[in-house]
């Protein structure tokens, strides 16, 4: 049953107005809908979407919370940097970024950044 349903990622925000500004100004999103409780729904490609809702728990996860599939990670990193997005650098076993981008055998490229609320987001490509 669930495998045929559309998926919606859910992200926490301590300050929903600050998050709205970040997603608009840095990532180029406008909310598709505002929920009764102030949550914001954003539409992405192929019918996918994500919800941002206000909670004090924002920024506490230490893992990637949402990711976008890219056909050109370098191009997208460059464009997001031009908008003021700062990419994370990692140097650990199995994961090392160079200029914010990791190249992983069998997985393509990936880059991670934090939103205004401390959520870890990423863009990545998968080899065909």
From TrEMBL:
Keyword set includes Lyase: yes
Entry-linked InterPro entries: Glyas_Bleomycin-R_OHBP_Dase, Glyas_Fos-R_dOase_dom, VOC_core
Limits of the VOC domain: 5-126
This protein's record includes keyword Lyase: yes
MF GO annotations: lyase activity
Keywords: Lyase
Gene3D superfamilies: 2,3-Dihydroxybiphenyl 1,2-Dioxygenase, domain 1 (3.10.180.10)
Name by which UniProt lists this protein: Enzyme related to lactoylglutathione lyase
